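Protein Record: Sequence and Backbone Structure Tokens
======================================================
Scope: a single protein chain, as residues and as a discrete description of its fold.
Tokens: labelled as protein backbone structure tokens, with as many entries as the chain has residues.
Position: the record begins directly beneath this header, with no further notes in between.
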Amino acid sequence: MSVELTLESLGLKKQLDKMTAKELRELVMSKIPQITGASGMAKEELLPAIKDVLGIKEEEGGVNPYKEQILATKRTIREMRAAKVEAPTRKAKEIMRRKINKLKKRTRRLANAV
């Protein structure tokens, strides 16, 4: 009597890669008894073990297509922070702060776009 485990049968709300080590340990201890010693494993050890049991192949080249754009935006943010310190007026500092805030939001959106 073998029960086939799938992501759907586990009823996950998040992707495995996005789950914390604590969440992964709870998942393994409650729903995947094939993996032993989960309470002492780190996330880097748990993920491959879970994916192996579920039959999920590790994807190569999972790099964000917007990586270069994100890095360039972060460089701009660092430059703006340095310029903000030397801004002559409070109003100028406030404008820089808002621009930095918008750029940070843009990098987050790009990172989640995949």
Notes: The chain has a mean pLDDT of 86. The chain has two domains: 7-54, 67-112.
